[in-house]
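[stage:ingest] chain + small molecule (guanosine-5'-diphosphate)
[stage:ingest] validated
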Amino acid sequence: MDIIAAIATGQVASAIGIVRVSGEGCFSLCDRVFRPLGGKRFSRSEPRKMIYGDVLDRSGELLDRGLAVRFPGPHCYTGEDSVEFYCHGSPVVLRELLDTLLALGARQARPGEYTRRAFLNGQMDLTQAEAVIDLIDAETAAAAKNAMAQLDGALRRPLEQVQSSLLEIASRFYAVVDYPDEDIEDIQPEQVRQALSAAEAALSRLLATAQRGKLLKTGVRTAIIGRPNAGKSSLLNALAGYERAIVTDIPGTTRDTVEESVLCGGVLLRLIDTAGIRETEDAVEKLGVERSRRALEEADLVLAVFDSSQPFTAEDASVLSLASRQKRWILTASKADLPTAPVPFLTWREDQTPPAAAVRVSSVTGEGLKELEDAVSALFPSGDPHGAGSLLTDARQEDAVRRTRDAVRRGSEALSAGLTPDAVVTDIEDALNALGELTGRTAREDIVEQIFSRFCVGK
Ligand code: GDP
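[stage:predict] done
[stage:export] tokens:
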């Protein structure tokens, strides 16, 4: 593969900036831009050690003084020879160094190309490559932790187990059929049944984590509902920590939905402040009301707000009844710093969901916000009971796991219905193909490889 180079750090002035180079032949190329102070050639320097020296530009003049590290393949990130330069974090210096490397024959790396090479060189599978992106983009500590565990193979390992048991069946079947003279033992239906049911259970366990994984990665869609002036915008602002929505005391000012991401009790909430849900003649506001209803229907969590300093109205009652149609909601009494007006005793019919928690908050003094945070983190625990990293966070992965599981299930059913082994093997191959999409391996090659390595066919 050709030599690629790129600036690995952000394009703003900072203390340190990193330029990365990867590809066969990159050490001698880097000799021309980096001169260790000790006088020894960089390409002969000790691997994986920081070397101090002069960074040179195209005309061989001193551009910067910094550090460089040599990583000989295959035991490095990309799995091939690579170099990292640690310069002063000046965008101009970094650009100049990159231009010099390009002038000497390197090519500008495309986005994600280092990780792509790591995958192509067998350093990681696709789930791990995707975890790198998730780790970089993580918005909460819990999401970063899950991504790091996946990078460490938390998803790869259970998938490999499923893959190897399915491969075992498929390859044994083909070995018997294709090489009848080799005296390979026939596979027993009971063995196939057991392997399929274990695989199905493992895949179903993974699929069951997808909902939680999605919330962890993209955040919990949270609708704040309440009658006009209940204190919704103020609550959003108090949670977000700064003025985001327009707060006024004229009812109906929040005409559109306003979105804000906040970290609440360690959980990423995508807060949607909705226009007050009520009947209105104002066309613009009407649009907002319609959107609010939609936001409410799509929400993972609802914060139903009523003003605890004002008499409880029929409108408040209808807001709570709207909330009680949702799966998870928190009853939020606002303006806790003001004298309290009486609240009727609230009860829930059987077809309604009672609130997961009831809190009294003040957006002015901050009272009760901690209780609200606790209620949210209890509803959306960020950890995974099965161990960090085993949450499926990606729609692509979820789809491939589901197709794998469905194919395994079809195989089980075919077996129970007494179909011949070749029908079952077709399903197993479908499962391996879907699994191959997930991990980036091709099922066909794996089967062939297994036949030759395990059964010594043809020696
Ligand atoms: P929304 O229409 O539901 O979004 O309500 P707003 O957040 O715009 O608040 C309506 C009015 O109530 C504003 O005048 C706010 O200043 C006031 N308000 C909101 N929250 C509190 C609170 O916690 N304490 C007090 N004292 N006033 C509040």
